[in-house]
Amino acid sequence: MATSNTLRFLQNQALASPTPTDLLLPVFGGEVIAAFEEYNQFLPLVNYKQMTSGKDMKFPAVWKIGSEYHEAGTELLGMDVDTKEYTISLDDRPLVSHFEVDDIDVSLAHYDIRGELAMECGREMARQMDRKVAALLVNAAATAADAGSNNFPIGGDNYTTYDNSADFTATFDTEQDAANLIEAISDIARAMDEKDIPSADRACVVRVGLYYALRKLGLPYYNAGVVYPAGGAVFGNNQYGSAGPAIQDGQGYSRPIDVMGVPVFASNHLPTTTVTTGPAKYQVANADKVGGVMFHKSAIGVCQLAGITTESYRDVRRQSDFFVAKMFMGGGALRPYAAYRIGKN
Predict the structure, then answer these.
(1) What average pLDDT does the structure give for the chain?
(2) φ and ψ at 179, to 5 degrees?
(3) pLDDT tens digits, 216-247
(4) Peptide bond just before 44 cis, omega within 30 deg
(5) C-alpha span between 82 and 64 (Å, rounded)
(6) What pTM was computed for the model?
(7) What are the two backbone dihedrals, phi and then psi, of residue 106, each rounded to the nearest 5 degrees?
(8) What angle do CA 84, 89, 94 make, to 5 degrees?
(9) Which pLDDT value is given to residue 200?
(10) How far apart are CA 182 and CA 262, in angstroms?
(11) Is the pLDDT of residue 165 over 90?
């Protein structure tokens, strides 16, 4: 039987070695893998205000008033109380993220690239907000004293009392680090209590690796044939004998673990390398030694003008669309004695 001459019309004869499938059209599902949206932890945990106009926002602060026994016949003249005012100013200029797309490129694409890029700009603004708030908290904790002649407490911690620097590792992700974190949180909670910082609205945010080390603390594990904790798997304790947190707490990256009544969150936005660019208040020294920060909501103030906004512009001359996402924010320490850094010396 003779072999028929089947026309292989999908061959690309322009190629040196054509194959029967050269001209098959690729199937594009129209799916776009966008960047994952990191969970923004810090902003809901601090004193955040939105502004409708102006450059500065005032935050009054009042310290304790005294009391006295009233003697018969004496006149009450009023007692002194320390008062002062903090000013939080917006940054000099807004932060922007932007892109431009050509009409022809958009029409040839198999997906709505403008929508995806616009969402990515918004996510970038959210990431930058979290990073700036984290930097403000870390720097507030480094404030050693309060300005002026008043009885407000001195600043938080400068890697001296609550660092456990001899024990924390450089990676902040071991069982040893998790045990040290619990000790640090306990010490800081006590220091806060001694400064009469309210127990409500406290929080601790740590590196992701340290969060998951805390999550695992107390679970038995094997290392070179040895079972830890030593002497058997004692549920709820680690190999150093320290009690671990409740294992059922912290069911994922965004949910806190309760330690000494303080919710512990994870964040990718803590500074981990020294920051030397941008406004001075967002620059952080020795950031590689920061494992986390514990604070009360009143430690810093953050103000923002009109939130995160987006704009688009149709450029007929260039046959393109231009998109901008922007935010105009500022921040600073309000009560630096209510913020503490956890890390290495």
Answers:
(1) 79
(2) -65, -40
(3) 876 655 555 555 555 444 444 444 445 444 44
(4) no
(5) 7
(6) 0.77
(7) -65, -40
(8) 170
(9) 92
(10) 10
(11) no
Residues whose CB is less than 8 angstroms from the CB of residue 7 and which lie 6 or more positions away in sequence, other chains included: none
Q: State the DSSP H helix or E strand holding residue 120, giving kind and residue range, or none if neither.
A: helix 113-141
Is 36 among the domain residues?
no
Unique residue bearing structure tokens 């805390």: 214
Would residue 285 count as lying in a domain? yes
Counted domains in the chain? 1
Instruction: Please say whether the beta carbons of 294 and 188 come within 8 A.
Output: yes
Tell me, yes or no, whether 71 lies in a domain.
no
Could you tell me the residue range of the domain that residue 154 belongs to?
A: 43-62+83-343
d(CA 162, CA 339): 12
Residue 295 · residue 263 · CB < 8 Å = no
Element (H, E) at 186: helix 175-194
The answer as to whether 72 is a domain residue is: no
| pLDDT tens digits along 315-340 | 898 888 888 888 899 999 888 889 99
Q: Which residues contact 89 (CB under 8 A, 6 or more apart)?
A: 55, 56, 57, 330, 332
Instruction: Give the β-pairing of 81-89 and 56-65.
Output: antiparallel
**Distance from the Cα of residue 208 to its chain's centroid:** 10
| Amino acid at position 134, single letter | A
Q: Which two tokens stand for residue 275?
A: 């920051």
